[in-house]
Amino acid sequence: MAESNGNNKILAVITEKEGQVAGGVPVFIVPGAKERQDTAFTLEKILDGMVHQLNEHTLLIVYHV
Amino acid sequence: MEHWFSLLNSYTGAIIVGVVVGVIVRLRMLRTDYRQYPTYLHGQLIHISLGFIAAGMGAVAVPALIEKQYTAVTFLALAAQQFREVRNMERETLAHLEEDELVPRGSSYIEGIALAFEGRNYAVIMAAFLCSLAVIEIHLWAGVLLGLALIGVAGILRSGKYLGQITSVELGKLRMEGPSLYVDDIYLMNIGLEDNRKRIMNRGIGVVVSPASKDSRITLANLGQRQAILHDLSVVLGVFRDTGEPSLIPLSKRDMEDGRLGILCLPEEKEPEQVLQVIRNVPVLESAVRTPTEGLKMFRGGKKSG
Prior knowledge:
The complex is a heterodimer of chains A (65) and B (306). Chain A has 65 residues and is an alpha+beta fold.
């Protein structure tokens, strides 16, 4: 589980501003840093995916195979 | 008629000694420990029964050969087939159980266990064969003595090398640099949630395993060996995780420069000394052992002579 085999998948993106992320993945626009953490926390529990921080403005939920 | 009776008597002792020694050898090598495998009672029953069959085959092979019943040897081939089946059975069972483990064993570990089960049955055949031979060719007591010696040897051969013998295991300091988790200077993973960062810093224990030689460096790099470490840790010390908590995952990463292994473990109770002890006692998996130094010697030797 810990060792990725290249089939990892981005399930959702949580970001500060619209336009920073695009593509075929659900994007949640959440302005505040604290709110982003809360959203990511909830999504992690729901999706069973791991939260990663791409940069200060963007969090990813990734499903590791 | 009388001839047959005396024949039976002379061989009965050999067969009994062979079978008894074989079964005891199997029992000596069948130990349920922290790995909880084979499970109590039913799993053990299967292996004791198979050990009995193996012992019987080994013990009967000698009288059969002496009586020039050479076709009886073909039964040994049948036994080999049967025990290969045992290996498949073990592998399948363990692979199915894998889905229900919070920290899986990994296929190398499973393969190692399955291999041991097959190999041990052959050891039983050999022990029974040798004892039976000693009884017939020398004396009843010679067979019994040889049997006792073999039972002793089986206990020694049961366990292979441990990780502590080929590496040095030390505690490392876990630290966060932004979202990145490190143990000492080895990067482990990116953690996005503040909550998880706090929990890992509170509950986690960082360990650095350094290889002692070139050979152990490759063993330590093996993914199966690394998974075995994590699995054993979770079995002995418990694991602080559940489904729906994908970030709380014990994991190992390798420093590619010098082959050291950084490990994050999340035991239920934070007892660093025990963690080190468990890692030192992880078995070195047969499939992970490589000996590049032997290869180098061979190549150098080849060049000189060539």
